[in-house]
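As described in the Methods, two query proteins were run sequentially through the folding procedure within a single session, without resetting any intermediate state between them. The first query and its resulting structure tokens are shown here.
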Amino acid sequence: MNLSRIWATLSLGALSVGAFAADATATAIDKADTLWLIVASALVLLMTPGLALFYGGMVRRKNVLSTMMHSFIMMGVVSIIWLFLGYTLAFGKTANGFIGGFDFLFGSGISMKDAYPYAPHTVPAGAFMLFQMMFAIITPALISGAIAERMKFSGYLLFTTLWILLVYVPVACWVWNPDGWLCKKGALDFAGGTVVHLASGVSALVACIFLGKRKALNHEPILPNNLTTTLLGAGLLWVGWFGFNAGSALAVGDLALVAFSTTHFAAAAGMISWLIFEKVRYGKPTALGAASGLVAGLVGITPGAGFVGLPESVLIGFLAGAVCFGAVSLKSKFGYDDSLDVVGVHGVGGLLGAILTGVFASSAVNPVVGDVMKEGGRSGLILTQVMAVVVVGIYAAVISTIILFLVKFTTGIRVSKEEEVEGLDLALHGESGYNF
């Protein structure tokens, strides 16, 4: 299989042999591939309202609308940021491998007929841009679960705006731009283990520590207002994740089928694993545990969805469910208030999945694995994966801390005690989620 064919069949995150990217020749647009990417983009966008339902059901009744707004508002804010500046800095031609150029500034030069110019995709550049935008939308929304019920809406908007530009966009360039420095080093991330889940999970940890604990924590019951909503949201996430992972093949073919299949089996294994450990530890398997477990499995398989086989996907999902369950159980011991378990599920799951991708990635599933392993073999690939998660984790933590300080001294970051007691729905939005 020649390099051009590899480019055409790999995911956006598997573009790990970037040396030949600049020489990529024009590729004919395939209507079937284009249709699939449009459908996949819609599925990924569906994940954000799904996340709103997932998070919204887990908070107290007085904060349900404010929590859901954290996800919904990203569909507006990030879309404009992405078109005007984010996309070009992530996927524009990069001279240094750290940040893209201004090829597509303000949406210019994004063709709706011709392919992305720096890799032989078989879909129009406009479709690729929209697909990438859906990833950018949901990623900062993931962070919101860690700071739910206590962050100012204005502070959240400023934080996420700066975070997209200063954390997400550079990391996306490093890993997914054909000339990104981590991409060239052979780091494998099929659909966002490091770019989406690790970066958001680490930033969520920093944010919830920076804000401090909710006033009611350890003083009064903090109970979910509607777990049926959470289950519905989890179901939508499961369905939308097929677009997330299988869409990252960027084409209709065997790689999309592999990613679709591994995604499903990992989610199933993650749910079963979480419920087993929950039953052993607490005596009862819960609906919230089922929802959390399937999401953990989905997070764990994301970086390797197009690199591993079906048996390995089940193992990855099972391990993700078990490890994330343990991580969530330990948060009280470490003393941070991660409201909706973003750190334990997305941060830990993304880290675990990225490393397990190095362990289980197979050239029989995806030819790029063989190319990446030519120099360092299996151990070299694992070390590269570890390096990627360490670098991305440290970068996300440092820049997120700086952004939080900037927000604190501008818009302010935390609501007053009175507003927190009243509930953010009424205090910040003048609305109530439930008017019975």
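Immediately afterward, the second query was submitted; its sequence and tokens are:
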Amino acid sequence: MAMALALPALWGLIAAWWTPRGPLTTFQVLAAMAIGLAVGWFAGSWSGSRWAMLTSPVTFAVVFEIFRIGAVGPTVDAPASSTYGVFALVVGRGYHGLVALVPMVLGAALGAGSARRREARAAGLSPDRSTWQIMRGVAAGFTGFALVVLAAFVARPAATEQIAGTDGEPLPGSVAELTTVEAGGRDLGLMIRGASIDNPVVLFLAGGPGGAERGAMRNHLGQLEESFTVATWDQRGTGSSYAELDPTDTLTLQGQIDDTIEVSDYLRDRFDQDKIFLLGQSWGSTLGILAVSEAPDRYAAFIGTGQMVSQRETDRIFYEDTLAWAEENGDDALAEKLRGIGPPPYDRMLDYETALSYEHDVYPYDHSPNSEGDGGFSENFIVAEYSLTDQVHLLGAFLDTFAALYPQLQDIDFRDTATEFDVPVFFAQGAHEAGGRAVLFEDWYPMVRAPRKDLVVLDSAGHRPLFEQPDEFVNYLNDVVVSDEAVLARTAGD
């Protein structure tokens, strides 16, 4: 029995060191399933008791939780009862429990059964054929089959389809691949798609911090691939780059800027273009402004959508507007909770949920004319470009990365720090952008000085205009941005 307890304890210790947030990659998940099954089998076989079905997973879980205590973020912190807290529990501990503990329970049942059969044979007894025994066998068989099916889905690799010509064959000179690029000493995920590698390159920076948008780019912006080579980057701690999050104390704003420039240099070198386009959405627009300010020589132009100006001031306005909305609509519980936590900024990430998660109620508009609906980011989880494990972790990655990086953004206010640019800047905003962002952009835009600046407002869009009105957005890039004289002058040598 001591050995039966020591083995899951040892595996819990190793897993806490290897995967402190639980398995985050396909290999880690399949390894967790296989090792959990083996650990359970040996524990059940050595103990000869079905109690190993309980003691093994409990021992593993206790040791794992104790020794991964250094990991921080909503998916590993103490569970919370809020909506975000429940999501964090399900995609963090819930998924880990499914792929690590269920195989361990099954293994313990099989191991204990094997030990009992050996004992019966040694004693010259006939195997137990009772109804209860048969039911246990059926349950074990069903569980084993379900785990095999799960493993098959987990093992499906992420992939992106080739760009086809009129004959259905891959278009000559096109590119369609999922790869990684080294930035900041880490391998970060990159999706690159385009009808011709001779087209200008655009690097897309997703929102968040913590968002990943391969799904939205594939579902809504396929037309952009006809005129650009589109690089969709999973920033550190997001999407296919979630496994690169830890240690979180090394995830810094300056590090994100440096990573952006490194990825830009990779694309410039690979596609032999002196300057590329940088496209930022929401938090990505903050990161993009900081990157083009620090390294303007890398970029032909910057395009901001859902443009952020000051995270702290936006949050304050959201808080005040949400409190006013709650009072006007008689939602006393929400109003009381908002008053209790006070205005942002907050030390705890989950406090932002109360102040910021009522945007669709406080700033409503009709999404029905748009390509992307009310669900926004969440509508685009299920795409072939992410593995099953990536898809499960998209929300958890958002929560953990947001918690690590967002406090570092509180001193940013472009009205004070970013009004002069050496590169052309273009903005595509939604007519229904939430007030907490729109009023700050309206303050900032007249202050901007650049070789060229331009603004288009898409009439049925909100915070995600490039995905809500993709046709109009692509037309703006093709008809205005790429053909602008200031941009052409910067790319003349490419």
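Residues 83-122 form the longest helix (40 residues). We note this only descriptively and draw no conclusion about the first query from it.
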